[in-house]
């Protein structure tokens, strides 16, 4: 009789462990999905902000271009056109970021860094440990 109860308890314990393990996996997968969703939202907000900024840059660039060309026509000297050179680079960068493939190039470069140069992104003291975090938490009290 005791042998049967022992086997039943062992089976019950194994089922309980499997259940807990599955719950942990599900919780971790949910956390990963949530963090990725939050990252995607933050990236979308940054891109939307860049696009809004680009609209203002485009307006400024257009007005500066009109003013520069008008100044050149009135004076017949190239000096009013000089500020357009750096502004063109800024405008082009913003356009590439907002509507070009700059984000793809940034992702590819980030992947290359992760694969080929991981030393560039390691933390100075390595990953924090639970004991280090607990020690710091105790200091804050």
Task: Describe what this molecule looks like in 3D.
It is a single chain. The chain has four helices and no strands. The chain has 141 residues and is mainly α. Helix 1 packs antiparallel against helix 2. The protein is elongated. InterPro entries: Plg-R(KT) (IPR019319).
Q: Which class do the helix and strand fractions yield?
A: mainly alpha
Distance between the termini: 55 Å
Number of continuous helical runs: 4
The percent of residues in helical segments reads over 70%
Question: Which consecutive residue ranges, at least 5 long each, have pLDDT under 50?
Answer: none
Order of helices and strands: HHHH
**How many domain modules?**
1
Whole-number radius of gyration? 29 Å
Instruction: Write down how many β-strands occur, each being a DSSP E stretch of 2 or more residues.
Output: 0
Assess the beta-strand content as a share of residues.
Answer: under 5%
Please give the largest β-sheet. Answer: none
Gross morphology is elongated
Mean pLDDT: 91
Task: Sum this structure up briefly.
This protein has 141 residues and is mainly α.
Main attributes of the structure:
4 helices, Plasminogen receptor (KT), Plg-R(KT), mainly alpha, 141 residues
Summarize the SSE layout with pairings:
Blueprint: H1 2-75, H2 84-99, H3 102-116, H4 130-140
